[in-house]
Amino acid sequence: MKSQQLASIAIRLRECMPLLLVLLIAQISLAQAPMPTPVAPDKNALYSRAVDMFENRKYPTAFLAFQEAAVAGKIEAASYLGLMYTEGRGTPVNYIEAMKWLRKAAAYGDSQAMVNIAILHYKGLGTPQRYDAAMQWFRDAAAEGNDQAMFNLGVMYRDGLGVKVDFAEAMAWFAKASNRENDKAMNSVGALYRNGQGVPVDFASAALWFRRAADLGNGEAMFNLGLLYRKGQGVAKSDAEADKWFAKAVVAKSE
């Protein structure tokens, strides 16, 4: 009886052997198969999503998304992180972290990051106030074509911040920024003509530059143009035109 049972078991083992071999081979194949390579996150998609959230003022989630994009290698995200640390959007203000991220972006030629570094030096935020350092960073950004940097250089020469007052140099930088449609620079050119700073007083030219800036939505230029109409300087005197521009300036300021 016992021998019959053993024979039966042997027969069953022989019948199962092919299946066991198949399973063993499959197991060995799986063990030797290479692990799938993890898919790297799409840095451009992460960045685009972060910008969209930032523009919709969803700052906490935008901040996290910019961090992901920056880690993935999107350098523009580093610039945004610097800005958000500077202004406390989606994260507490931290000028040290701001400077760290801005420098990373600036190292890759991000001109807006250079401007923001300059502003930290200009205002002495997280670093000693140094107009010379601010001016150098503004110059670096201006060399990359950044009109905000050009405008700020004009302000520093006009107001004598870190350098001697030089209205001619200020005018040159305001003109460069104006060529890039910077409305603040246009308004500043108009003010130099109105005040006779670095150039002879020329109310007609002042009115022209104030109007160009006003057409781009600059409220200060609208007010300045209104003053010229009120006084009849460079334009035909008109209280109606003056009031119109003053009203536009109020609206622009409230927006």
N→C terminal distance: 101 Å
- H-E string: HHHHHHHHHHHHH
* CATH homologous superfamily designation of the largest domain: Tetratricopeptide repeat domain
Count of individual beta strands: 0
The tally of domains stands at 3
CATH topology of the largest domain: Serine Threonine Protein Phosphatase 5, Tetratricopeptide repeat
What percentage of residues falls in helices of 4 or more residues? over 70%
Question: Which word captures the global form?
Answer: globular
CATH top level class name of the largest domain: Mainly Alpha
Low-confidence stretches: 20-24
Tell me the β content.
under 5%
Q: From the alpha carbons, calculate the radius of gyration and give it in angstroms.
A: 33 Å
Mean pLDDT: 89
Number of helices: 13
**CATH structural architecture of the largest domain:** Alpha Horseshoe
Biggest sheet architecture: none
Which structural class should the secondary elements be placed in?
Answer: mainly alpha
